[in-house]
Amino acid sequence: MPRLARRLLACATAGALWTGALGAVAVTTAVVTTATPAAALDNGLAVTPPMGFNDWNAFGCNVSEQLIEQTADYFVTSGLKAAGYTYVNIDDCWMTHTRDAQGRLVPDPVKFPDGIKGTADYVHSKGLKLGIYEDAGTSTCAGYPGSLGHEGTDAQTFADWGVDYLKYDNCYNKSDGSRADYVNRYTAMRDALAATGRPIVYSLCEWGQQNPWEWAGDVGNSWRTTGDISDNWSSMLSIAKANMPLSAAAGPGRWNDPDMLEVGNGGMTDTEYRSHFALWSMMDSPLLIGTDLRKASAETLTILKNTDIIALNQDTLGKQATVLSSDGGKYVLVKQLANGDRAVALFNSTDTAQHMSTTAQAAGLAHRGIYGVRDLWAHTDYESAGTLAATVPAHGTVLLRVSASHPGTAVQNPPLLDAGVTVPDHIEPGQTATVSTTVTDLGVLPATAVKVALAAPAGWTLTPGGATQRAVLPGGKTFTTTWTAAVPAGTKTGGYPLTGSVSYRSPVDGQAVTAPLTGTLSVMVPPPSGTHYLSDLDWTSATNGWGPVERDRSNGETGPADGNPITLGGTVYAKGLGAHAPSTITYYLGGRCSSVTATVGVDDEKNGKGTVEFQVTADGKQVADSGVLTNAMGGKPLHADVTGAVSVQLTVTDGGDGNDSDHADWADAQLTCS
Prior knowledge:
Layout: H1 3-13, E1 51-54, H2 56-59, H3 65-78, H4 80-83, E2 87-89, H5 115-125, E3 129-135, H6 151-161, E4 165-169, H7 179-196, E5 201-204, E6 222-224, H8 233-243, E7 255-257, H9 270-282, E8 287-289, H10 298-304, H11 307-313, E9 322-327, E10 330-336, E11 342-348, E12 354-359, E13 371-375, E14 380-384, E15 387-392, E16 397-403, H12 407-410, E17 417-422, E18 432-441, E19 447-455, E20 461-464, E21 469-473, E22 478-486, E23 494-505, E24 512-523, E25 530-533, E26 541-543, E27 550-551, E28 566-568, E29 571-573, E30 576-580, E31 583-588, E32 593-602, E33 611-618, E34 621-630, E35 636-641, E36 647-653, E37 663-673
Parallel strand pairs: 1-2, 1-8, 2-3, 3-4, 4-5, 5-6, 6-7
Antiparallel strand pairs: 9-10, 10-11, 11-16, 12-15, 13-14, 13-16, 17-18, 18-22, 19-21, 19-23, 20-22, 23-24, 25-37, 26-31, 27-30, 28-29, 30-37, 31-36, 32-35, 32-37, 33-34, 33-36
Helix pairs in contact: 3-5, 6-7, 8-9, 9-10, 9-11
């Protein structure tokens, strides 16, 4: 069950009237055209997107005074405060289940022995601010007293305690489903906060149910545009894609909020977390850390404290990035900055490295003979004649700040190089493949003493077929080297890194520059002859809505092997794959196989819930479709002819109604090969 669904379980079981909350979990990329946004809330707050911490993503209901105070301490000692992080926010579960005799909320005395006032005083003593959580319903999502009908009392209580930020949720809302009801409930708290006279940032959390970007500009300082984020790539990507088209609604004091950061929580790679942070910064999203900072890795802190990227998010012009292009999952986003610069993100949402490019003029800068370019991950300055290009790793983001304002300064920088590795689609063990490295000088000036180095994994051989050095590489010219890679027999299926570097010197001052050179060579092992269970074979890739795809178990939504025996219509299956929509599992066949068979359905453990559709695609052509299946339908046999296909994909969609409870089983899934 997705996290938002867990938070709303009490609402559902109590029969509370909330509209479409579980549907919000399945974030779609289709967004209605934005209306002209309302003027910003006139409270003088959040003139740049709020930055800070919220405990929910990492701790859920396990919040305490100790956690909040330790986080405040860490903000100071780690340099996060100096980087701009200000708010230390308490989410749900901080209070008791009943109000006091005067109708006021009561902090849990075990979790907060000094109360919220004492906690706020401590946070304030560190030069930071405290945030708190409530709900525009009769109860919070976790079942604690809500603020509906108590707005004045609760707002004054928060002000008396010294609260600086309010996240206002949407559970148990007794809504009739109309936009007017949403506007009225959230406006009531806006007015109550204003009446206290205390400056309190107001963050609406209605999950994008009523398109708040169209009406909430003068109600709150930010508004959630989607359902809750989860710590996995598919969740982050779907939310980012839903938030991208909403740039017209954002501005100083009024921000689109695609939910808190997951950076550091472990469900994504560092490359994916860098994309997460880059996109949220470019989209002027509130930057609220959602990990346990006391255990944060050095790489997590490097991402979160990247002041070059934070500067984009905190730019005083307050213009959210717009999508310049989005061809085949390759997104170019551009953000206008207050000093006239443009920030350009080359975001590769695909599963393989992609060459991406645009130009300074396409990004909105005037025509110039030379531009200054700063790589915001490498913190390095370059010059360019106008082209901005890079080979971007799978799920990665190259982030550049481009200026046309100081050509005299730009010409002092080394030229920007576009370096990449081109590899074949795949290679089988025991074979050789040709790869190539390309280096293009995108600058006005030549690069000198250019050297290319490339290495393969241990046990492989990688032999250059030509020169790896050039004395001079003129602007606009490309230097290509071919290499022969030999893959040892017995190598397992997977993506194997080819790593290296391009080193060169600036012709102006001889400055030495080194840029990374990376590629991934996919090794695919053909399946053995005969009929085999798919759960016993290695897939080439797998994505899943919640948790990992499971072998011989149902999907448990969190970690490996946390599911149950696969069960459909009362029949227990010892073998199979346990997925959660949306899911895609890819196997390499190498043209050697003929059929895929399985019994498919929603696992019995969901007790009547869940709606999914199973599809099998061979080399891009759909060869089997189960139709929409519900939990009550049990298992359905599925057969797919995959004769001659190089690869096959097993896909599960949500059946069109959101992915709550979509535990999808490929029971007894088998592959027959020659």
